[in-house]
Write a structure and sequence with these properties.
206 residues; mainly alpha; Arc Repressor Mutant, subunit A; 2 domains; three-stranded antiparallel sheet; 12 helices; 3 strands; 8% strand
């Protein structure tokens, strides 16, 4: 048989990464084929996006022929089931004064060894504005991924769901050392309000 060379588009394979929890916790709950299809489609579309944030709107989903052929009723039902079973995360954003559904992947569906700071923000704080998006990009360049994830966890644990609060945590870790005894003593002594006091307190509370 002749040796056929694959074209560039044929030889390049794009992979969609799914976490172990998808197979262990989510897949056993999925009984509907449309739900499985939409979960995989959304995972693929989000992971191939180069721009941030890594999420996709309902309107964007309808622009894809393979998804639009499902019909809106079937699509909404499949999306609702995928959210209910933990395959997708649902939030809303405002575009031209109109609220629109936004879908993203659960935090543990990110690529291994990476932290999607935009996803963490959307899931724990809220809608990302253009100004916040710039700050998130800068923080992603400045701090280790593990620090970012742990700073979000600490803020949520202390019920301080504010980006400014998280920034102050990261700045403090950078200046004093994340695991330094001094940092830990300050947390115990001053409590969570440590970040809301001082000359930057008015920013932290935003």
């Amino acid at each position: 048989m002749p040796n056929r060379q694959l074209s560039g588009s044929q030889s390049k394979t794009d992979f969609v990464w799914l976490p172990e929890s998808f197979f262990a916790q989510v897949l056993p709950k999925i009984q509907d084929l449309a739900e499985l299809k939409i979960a995989l489609h959304v995972s693929h579309l989000i992971q191939r996006k180069r721009e941030r944030p890594h999420s996709i709107t309902y309107k964007e989903l309808l622009s894809h022929e393979a998804i639009a052929t499902m019909g809106e009723e079937s699509l909404r039902r499949a999306l609702d089931l995928a959210v209910e079973h933990g395959a997708l995360f649902h939030s809303t954003s405002k575009s031209d004064g109109v609220l629109e559904g936004v879908y993203s992947l659960p935090a543990d569906s990110r690529q291994p060894s990476t932290v999607n700071i935009f996803m963490l923000y959307e899931q724990n704080i809220g809608i990302i504005t253009p100004m916040i998006a710039e700050e998130l990009q800068e923080a992603e360049k400045t701090y280790p991924p593990q620090w970012i994830e742990e700073a979000f966890k600490e803020a949520v644990t202390l019920n301080k769901r504010s980006w400014r609060y998280i920034v102050r945590i990261l700045e403090r870790w950078a200046s004093e050392g994340k695991d330094s005894g001094e940092y830990k003593r300050d947390i115990k002594k001053d409590g969570p309000d440590k970040y809301t006091k001082g000359k930057y307190g008015h920013l932290v509370q935003r």
